[in-house]
Specification:
Layout lengths: L21 H14 L12 E5 L5 E6 L8 H11 L8 E6 L11 H8 L3 E6 L9 H7 L3 E3 L4 H7 L1 H9 L3 E9 L17 H11 L4 E5 H7 L6 E3 L5 E3 L5 E5 L17 E4 L4 H10 L4 E4 L3 H10 L4 E7 L24 E9 L2 E8 L5
Parallel strand pairs: 3-4, 4-5, 6-12, 6-13, 7-10, 7-12, 10-11
Antiparallel strand pairs: 1-2, 1-3, 8-9, 13-15, 14-15
Helix pairs in contact: 2-3, 3-4
């Protein structure tokens, strides 16, 4: 049986209108929790899997931890076998359609078939044309397949990855920190620190969710940033986080030999172009799924003009400079009717500052 949606309500017989038992729904929620343990960055989606016995008991669990590691289904099957559990006739509850291709690891659909699984309950369909098709393989092998169970939750968990594999380019978050009058630097060029420590810590937390962080050569030369992700240790010291996004510099000017971006704290890539589309194409080829853009007014304007901004994160400090660099350069708006409009999705106070998260009203390209 195959369904395209899931009804959370159970019938008097303990089965939902779409053929999913309450126990299977509970297992899917557990699988989503397992999937969320993986980092939000990286080339692969976050996936969780729970194997159930015919009577509803949990036999084994697994989740994908990153590129090159076993996928969630294979991890769960291996855990079951290691515990001496017979998986014949089991139900696999998995947040994303089992893959059907051989990449860094073997196909998960085949692993489930070989394990003797007789039923598979799937959250979201795999949007990646390279890996999709696992449900067809399972059905061809005689497995009962149900799809669309808590699909929106699974898709939301992998929103950067889903966007990248369906659009062919990274999900782009554009960030800046500005005063109430929209300035990112004073008239003399100084900009540290417009916002307080809570806002700066939040930047590092959000930056840590990205695969790459990008600035233009103007910002790289003027500010000499590290662009690393840092944490405050228990003893109060600042230390590098475990994950360091790829540092990307957009532009044709050379970086000085002693630039901080040339240190060994993280990899740095210079894209010698001013073309946003070309840059995104090159980053997509490197499997960058989420790009965090921190450039100055010129880079911000370039990305906005390109129509490729998927999310805007704006930190606002309750201060006024009256002069100095604006947050954004010319984006080509000549009249109010052409205004680039965004929808607010979140507003959070961070100490004395505010962070606004918004998405474009017009669908990005």
């Amino acid at each position: 049986m195959d369904t395209g949606s899931h009804d959370r309500g159970a019938t008097a017989h303990g089965v939902t209108a779409h053929g999913v038992t309450p126990r299977e729904t509970e297992a899917m929620l557990r699988a989503l929790d397992l999937a969320a343990r993986a980092a939000p960055h990286g080339p692969n989606p976050r996936v969780g899997c729970v194997l159930l016995a015919p009577d509803g008991r949990v036999l084994a669990e697994g989740h994908h931890t990153g590129a090159g590691a076993p996928h969630a289904e294979a991890e769960a099957v291996a855990a079951g076998k290691a515990a001496g559990v017979d998986l014949t006739g089991a139900t696999a509850v998995v947040t994303l359609e089992p893959c059907s291709h051989t990449g860094r690891t073997p196909p998960c659909a085949r692993a489930l078939l070989e394990a003797g699984v007789s039923r598979v309950v799937v959250g979201a369909q795999d949007p990646n044309p390279v890996a999709a098709g696992g449900t067809a393989v399972l059905r061809a092998g005689g497995v009962d397949v149900v799809t669309g169970v808590l699909a929106s939750e699974s898709t939301s968990l992998n929103r950067y990855w889903t966007h990248a594999v369906t659009r062919g380019r990274p999900f782009v978050t554009l960030k800046w920190a500005a005063t109430l009058d929209g300035r990112v630097a004073a008239a003399d060029g100084t900009s540290r620190w417009l916002t307080g420590s809570a806002a700066r810590a939040d930047v590092h937390d959000r930056r840590a969710c990205a695969d790459a962080v990008l600035v233009g050569t103007g910002t790289a030369l003027a500010d000499d940033p590290w662009l690393t992700t840092r944490r405050t240790a228990a003893d109060g010291r600042t230390e590098l986080a475990a994950h360091q996004p790829l540092r990307v510099v957009l532009g044709e000017r050379d970086l000085p030999a002693g630039a901080r971006l040339r240190d060994d704290a993280a990899e740095t890539l210079q894209l010698r172009t001013r073309d946003v589309e070309q840059a995104l194409t090159e980053l997509a080829a490197r499997e960058v799924r989420h790009l965090w853009v921190e450039g100055g007014p010129t880079v911000a304007a370039a990305f906005l003009r390109s129509g490729a901004v998927d999310e805007l994160v704006t930190y606002v400090a309750p201060a006024v400079l009256g002069a100095g660099a604006p947050a954004v350069g010319d984006v080509g708006v000549g009249t109010v009717d052409d205004t680039l409009r965004f929808r607010l999705s979140d507003v959070t106070r961070l100490g004395g500052d505010v962070v606004l998260v918004s998405t474009p009203e017009k669908e990005p390209v």
